[in-house]
Structure to design on (702 residues):
C-alpha cells in the first residue's frame, strides 16, 4: 500500500485486520487422528474411511486487510461458510490460530468471545434470520439489547442504522410484512447498529432475486464508502464477487486455492477449478467425463435368480427408458433399453440381460477429457455410460447434462 | 430367583411415610394453599358474572359464534345445578396446570439443552403417561390423605408430560439460523434462551400447555375417587347409584368445560379473533409499496 490513513478504531486502512494461520476444521469424533492423517497427506476419502471425519477447512492461512471487502468464493460444500463461521467461532476451529487485531480468538475465554461478538464482529445471514416476534426496530436493536445498552440509546442507534439502509419508515413493522430485499436491509441494519469493525456476510444476497441483489450490492458498496469496515463476504456467485470484492479467496473442497484481487485471479488463475469459474473458458477442457456423469439412470444388479421381468417392472415404474446392468461389484456389464429387454423377455431367452445389451453402448473412461468425448455423447441415441479405470460404473452422460454443463460455464 | 416389585414399592412408600412426613405435610400445605385459594376465589364469583367473564373471553380471543355457544352452554350447566361443581373442577385444573408448568417448563428446557438429560427424563415421561391413571391415586391418598391436594398431585403427575415434551421439542425446532444469529450477536446462554429460543418455541409450548390442561381435566374426574370433588363427584355418584341421568349431566358439564378451555387456550399466543381483523387492517402499512 502506498498510503495508509488512520481509521477511527485504531487499525489503519490496509493493515492486517484478520490473520488466519494453519486453520483446520474437521467435523466428526476423532478429529485428532483425522488431523494427523490430513497432515500426512491422506485424501479426504481415505480420512473419512479411516476415522469417519469430514474435512471442513484444510490448512487455511491468509490475511484479511482492514477496510476491504474480502469475498470467499467456492461451490457449495467447498467449506466457505464453515470458514466464515470460524472467524467469530460459531464453529470452533480444530487447530490453528485466528488473530483479530493481533489477538488470537481461538484462545479467548467464552466471556471475552461474547464481548468480541457484541463489539467487533457482527453477521448477516442468507435467510435473514430476523426474529419474527420482534418489530423491525427491535430486530435492528437486538445486538445492542443483548449487550446491555440502555433502551433510549439502542433505539436511537437502531433507528440510525435503519435510516442508513433506507428503512426508517418501517420501524414498527413485523419482519413477515417485508419483502426479501427489505428483510435483508433489516439484517444489515442489525449488523451495523453496534458499529462493529468487522461484518461477516454469509451468502447475504443469494436469496434475493437478481435485480434486488444488484441493488443490495451497490448499497453495501455505498455504505462501505461512507464508513469503512472490514467485510468478509461469502458467495458462490462470480459476478457478485467481481462487483464488490477488493480481494477474492477461492475455496475448493476445504482448501484455499487462491487469494488475490479480481484481476489477479482472472489474469492468473491458480488451477483449472479457478479457471472454470470464469466466462469464456472452454469447460470441456477443464472437466473430465467423470465430473459430468450423473447417476440418474437406473442400475440393475445382475443376480442369478432375480427375474428380468421384475427388473423391467422396476424400470417402467420409474419411467426410465434405459437401465445399466452392473455386477455385484458394481462392474459395468452393459446397457439395456426398455424395448430390447422386453423383446428378450417375451422370447424367453436364456440370460435376457446379456442378449438385450445395446450393441454400440461402449462405456467411456471417467478420466477422459470432456472435449474428447463430446462427439460420442452427441452422436449417441442414449446416455453414454462412464466407468472408472477398474471398469466400475460411475454414471452416465446424457445430452441434456452435457449441454447444461457447457451452458453453465459460458 | 424371584422378587416382588409390588413389595418393593410398598416398602418404599412406607419408608417415605415413616421418614418424610414433615416434608409431605409441607408439600400438602403449599398445594392446599393454592387449590383452596383458587377454589374459594372462583366460587366467590356469582354465576351470572362468571358466565359473563367466559363469554367476554370467548368474544375477545375466539369468535362471536363461540361466545354465543359459551353463553348458552354455561347457562345450561347452571340450569343443571352444576355451576359450583364446575368451578371446583376448574380450580383443580388451573392449580394442577400451574404446578405442572412450574415443574414442566424448566424440565423441558433442560431436556432441550442436553441430550443426556433428555435421555434420562424421556422414559420417566413415558411411564407417567402410560401408567394407568388410577395407580397414582393410591400413593397420593396414602401420602396426602383424601381431598383436593392428593387429587391435584395425581393430576399433576398424569398431565405434566405434554408440556415437558413440547417445550423440549419447541426449543429444539427453533430454526438453526435464529440460534446462530443469537450467538453471533453475543447472547449469553440465558439470553439465547429468553430472547431467541423461548419466544420462537412459543406455539409448541402453548400446544403443550393446552394438552396438559386437557389431560388434567380428564384426570380431575378420576381423582374424585379420592375426594377431589367437583364434577367428578357428580359422575361418581351417577355410577354408584346407577343413575344414568346424573352421570350424563356431570359428563356433559365436563365436556362443555373441556371445549371452552380448549378453544380459549388454543387462542393464546395467537392474534385475537379473526372477525376483528378487517378493522385492524386499516392500521397496517402496505410494505410492498416501498419495496425496493
Amino acid at each position: 500500500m502506498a498510503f495508509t490513513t488512520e481509521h477511527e478504531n485504531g487499525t489503519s486502512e490496509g493493515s492486517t485486520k484478520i490473520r488466519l494461520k494453519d486453520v483446520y476444521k474437521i467435523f466428526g469424533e476423532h478429529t485428532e487422528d483425522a488431523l494427523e492423517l490430513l497432515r500426512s497427506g491422506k485424501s479426504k476419502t481415505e480420512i473419512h474411511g479411516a476415522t469417519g471425519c469430514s474435512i471442513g477447512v484444510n490448512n487455511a492461512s491468509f490475511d484479511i486487510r482492514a477496510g476491504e471487502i474480502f469475498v470467499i468464493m467456492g461451490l457449495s460444500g467447498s467449506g466457505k461458510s464453515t470458514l466464515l463461521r470460524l472467524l467469530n467461532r460459531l464453529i470452533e476451529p480444530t487447530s490453528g490460530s485466528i488473530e483479530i487485531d493481533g489477538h488470537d480468538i481461538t484462545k479467548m475465554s467464552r466471556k471475552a468471545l461474547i464481548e468480541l461478538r457484541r463489539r467487533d464482529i457482527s453477521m448477516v445471514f442468507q435467510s435473514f434470520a430476523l426474529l419474527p416476534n420482534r418489530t423491525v426496530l427491535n430486530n435492528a436493536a437486538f445486538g445492542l439489547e443483548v449487550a446491555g445498552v440502555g433502551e433510549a440509546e439502542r433505539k436511537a442507534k437502531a433507528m440510525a442504522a435503519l435510516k442508513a439502509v433506507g428503512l426508517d419508515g418501517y420501524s414498527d413493522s413485523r419482519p413477515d410484512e417485508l419483502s426479501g430485499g427489505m428483510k435483508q436491509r433489516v439484517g444489515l441494519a442489525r449488523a451495523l447498529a453496534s458499529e462493529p469493525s468487522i461484518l461477516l456476510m454469509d451468502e447475504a444476497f443469494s436469496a434475493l432475486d437478481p435485480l434486488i441483489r444488484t441493488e443490495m450490492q451497490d448499497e453495501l458498496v455505498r455504505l462501505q464508502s461512507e464508513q469503512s469496515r472490514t467485510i468478509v463476504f461469502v458467495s458462490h456467485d462470480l459476478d457478485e464477487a467481481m462487483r464488490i470484492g477488493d480481494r477474492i479467496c477461492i475455496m475448493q473442497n476445504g482448501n484455499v486455492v487462491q487469494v488475490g484481487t479480481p484481476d489477479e485471479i482472472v489474469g492468473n488463475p491458480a488451477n483449472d477449478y479457478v479457471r472454470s469459474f470464469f466466462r469464456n473458458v472452454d469447460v470441456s477442457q477443464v472437466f473430465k467425463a467423470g465430473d459430468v456423469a450423473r447417476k440418474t439412470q437406473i442400475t440393475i444388479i445382475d443376480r442369478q435368480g432375480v427375474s428380468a421381468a421384475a427388473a423391467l417392472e422396476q424400470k417402467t415404474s420409474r419411467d426410465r427408458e434405459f437401465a445399466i446392468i452392473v455386477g455385484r461389484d458394481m462392474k459395468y456389464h452393459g446397457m439395456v433399453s426398455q424395448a430390447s429387454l422386453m423383446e428378450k423377455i417375451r422370447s424367453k431367452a436364456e440370460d435376457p440381460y446379456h442378449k438385450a445389451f445395446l450393441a454400440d453402448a461402449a462405456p467411456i473412461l471417467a478420466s477422459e477429457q470432456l472435449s474428447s468425448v463430446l462427439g460420442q455423447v452427441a452422436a449417441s441415441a442414449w446416455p453414454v455410460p462412464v466407468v472408472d479405470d477398474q471398469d466400475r460404473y460411475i454414471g452416465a452422460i446424457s445430452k441434456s447434462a452435457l449441454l447444461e454443463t457447457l451452458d453453465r460455464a459460458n | 430367583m424371584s422378587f416382588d416389585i409390588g413389595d418393593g414399592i410398598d416398602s418404599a412408600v412406607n419408608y417415605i411415610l415413616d421418614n418424610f412426613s414433615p416434608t409431605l405435610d409441607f408439600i400438602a400445605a403449599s398445594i392446599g394453599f393454592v387449590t383452596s385459594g383458587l377454589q374459594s376465589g372462583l366460587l366467590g364469583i356469582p354465576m351470572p358474572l362468571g358466565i359473563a367473564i367466559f363469554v367476554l373471553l370467548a368474544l375477545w380471543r375466539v369468535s362471536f359464534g363461540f361466545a354465543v355457544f359459551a353463553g348458552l352452554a354455561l347457562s345450561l350447566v347452571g340450569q343443571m345445578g352444576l355451576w359450583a361443581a364446575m368451578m371446583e373442577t376448574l380450580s383443580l385444573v388451573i392449580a394442577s396446570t400451574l404446578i405442572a408448568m412450574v415443574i414442566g417448563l424448566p424440565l423441558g428446557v433442560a431436556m432441550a439443552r442436553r441430550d443426556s438429560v433428555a435421555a434420562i427424563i424421556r422414559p420417566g415421561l413415558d411411564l407417567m403417561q402410560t401408567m394407568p391413571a388410577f395407580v397414582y391415586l393410591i400413593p397420593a391418598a396414602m401420602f396426602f390423605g383424601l381431598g383436593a391436594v392428593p387429587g391435584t398431585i395425581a393430576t399433576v403427575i398424569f398431565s405434566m408430560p405434554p408440556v415437558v415434551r413440547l417445550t423440549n421439542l419447541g426449543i429444539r425446532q427453533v430454526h438453526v439460523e435464529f440460534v446462530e444469529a443469537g450467538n453471533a450477536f453475543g447472547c449469553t446462554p440465558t439470553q439465547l434462551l429468553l430472547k431467541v429460543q423461548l419466544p420462537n418455541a412459543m406455539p409448541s409450548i402453548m400446544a403443550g400447555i393446552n394438552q396438559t390442561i386437557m389431560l388434567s381435566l380428564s384426570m380431575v374426574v378420576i381423582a374424585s375417587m379420592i375426594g377431589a370433588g367437583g364434577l367428578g363427584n357428580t359422575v361418581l355418584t351417577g355410577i354408584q347409584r346407577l343413575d344414568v341421568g346424573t352421570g350424563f349431566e356431570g359428563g356433559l358439564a365436563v365436556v362443555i368445560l373441556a371445549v371452552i378451555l380448549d378453544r380459549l387456550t388454543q387462542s393464546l399466543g395467537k392474534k385475537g379473533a379473526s372477525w376483528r381483523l378487517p378493522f385492524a387492517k386499516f392500521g397496517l402499512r402496505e410494505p410492498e409499496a416501498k419495496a425496493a
In short: The two ends of chain B are 79 Å apart (CA to CA). Chain B is about 80% helix and 0% strand.
